[in-house]
Amino acid sequence: MIEKIDPYGKELNALKRARRLRNRNISDDSLIDFASNDYLNLAQNREILELTLERMKELKSHAPKSSMLVNGYSQVHKDFENSLCELNGFEDAIVVGSGFLANISLIESLVRRGDTLFIDEEFHASGNLASHLIQGDVKVFKHNDAQNLRELLEEKKEGRAIIAIEGVYSMGGDLCEREIFSVADEFGAILIVDEAHSAGVLGENLLGVFEYFNIEVKPNHIKMGTLGKAYGSYGAYILASKHIVEYLVNRAKPIIYSTAPSIFDTLLAHNSLDWMQKNSSQLNIEIKKRQKLVQDILDIQMQSLILRVDIDTISKLMQKKDELKELGFSIGAIRPPTVKKPMLRIIARLGDNLSDFERLLNEL
pLDDT value at position 3? Predict the structure, then answer.
């Protein structure tokens, strides 16, 4: 008889004692959703779903079947990339399996021996993981601190400089500092902007921080966006110059060695993109309504659709989450080490729930 093996029991028990043990729980659809990243409520948009299903029925294959560089690259992928380029003003694009894979692709392949990665201290975990895979140096700069970034760049003597920031930071919901774009240009650095939480939320046409800040797209700019948030689908994309996209196709391991992104999810995201463009004016009105409610009730200027509420201890955080659940609300309770301090992460997502959002804010 084989003895029971429990090689990570001590670690799991330590997490339990610290109230940091993570669990998978089936989503409770009876709760009012202020936890998910479905910012525009498109994951429940039946018009977009039906349009996608009808188009899928016309295709010979409903799955990519192989990597993008064998024969998994379809016209559906190409059409979506073309639309993204046209709307965002970039030369080229490539769809990727997820935002996590996109950041791994960018950082692991672009930062070569002798190069230096300059990464914001609050950049997503995917970027931090990728920074351990590279042959170049890594410099972490203070969150959103353009001056600290400039000082670190001034110390660099050789090789390429690659900067990684987020358009809207996923935990705090704050926007990137616009001056960082100028610093990147000043030092001739490649600038990676993770727009996972800003594309679909910021800008007149909801295209993200490049549009919001009226940034002229340049050859050193790279934009990464995800499809699993505002777009109500799954996957990601990278927008860049033709030169950089060609390089990624030849050097980025998650692109070369992964099955091509889902055809259904790509088509679904393309239809979501079209729908967002047609309805951008009304969507912007709804976004501003929620931001104004937060300002009026909590006296907090919410720059995106992410509301951060700091809580003193993990115990109080989990208690507050349970209290809000009893009132019918699903919200995010984020604990260290994901963040430095425990926090409620509340998504002011669109939908037929403005009065519910107001009620939630009053409970806070």
Answer: 62
